Amino acid sequence: MDVKAEVERKLEAAVSRASRDVCPPGLASAVSYAVFPGGARIRPLLCLGVAQACGNVGDAALSGAAAIEMLHCASLVHDDLPCFDDADTRRGKPTVHRAFGQPLAVLAGDALIVLAFETVATACQDDPRRLPAMVGILSRSVGMTSGLIAGQAWESEAEVAVGTYHAAKTGALFVAAAMMGAASAGADAAAWKDFGSLLGEAYQVADDIRDATSTEGELGKPVGRDAALGRPTAVNHLGLGGAVAHLDRLIDRALQAVPACPGQVPFREKVRAEVRWFVPKDHAQFAA
Questions:
Q1: For the purposes of burial, counting CB atoms within 10 Å of the CB of 283, is it exposed (0-12), middle (13-18) or buried (19 or more)?
Q2: What pTM, to 2 d.p., does this model score?
Q3: How far are the Cα atoms of 107, 177, 186, 187, 247 from residue 190, in angstroms, in the given order?
Q4: What band does 255 get if pLDDT is binned at 50, 70 and 90?
Q5: Looking at residue 288, what is its pLDDT?
Q6: Does domain 3-286 sit in CATH 1.10.10.10?
């Protein structure tokens, strides 16, 4: 199975279904623009990788993976808004609010959150026993205590610990991706929480390093925004060398946290190989 192609088909089907009938044309266009073309699709691929390691990649896993990506795309649309990061570009093109205006950008992000839940609910019609676990995972990943909403809200607080901020802003969807993959396969989702948390933290630390050392052309989005907006980052907390060392430790810990499952060994090796997608290029040169 070409899992990335399957994820794209699932996303295309969901967005197309939601855009039919009497959906406002501008909203339909803004939602499609927010989702396609996508980035590396790291989170849905992680979801499917866990489902495969647990022994079952079916429609529930594909729908869960697509739902996770919809939440991620929604978070990018909202994060880029003038009231937050005020970003002009994302994935190498104008941000949604620059292309469609702020009202439609807000609504497109909201619509994607709702569509994520609809996608999972529809997929679980044939096996409703999995619905409570999968909906619960989605709810926590986007909620106001430890999910995306909390992560965005922490930016409005005078002080926040960098770990708390990163866990909600970025880690929540990695945790959700790992747990969703397990839940969709009928496995113990809770056993995958630590792995998802560590991998998500590693991704955020890598993103902090990229933001401090890369160019807009390399990333397809503005750089230096964290520093300009006074956001807590691993780089300003640990220094560049310290952040690089922390990143390497997190990757090692994440690999060790992969729980026992039928595909534990090949999954661990796949993760080890795939982390190159988010480890900053030549990051070793910044090591302390």
A1: middle
A2: 0.91
A3: 32, 12, 12, 9, 24
A4: very high
A5: 46
A6: no
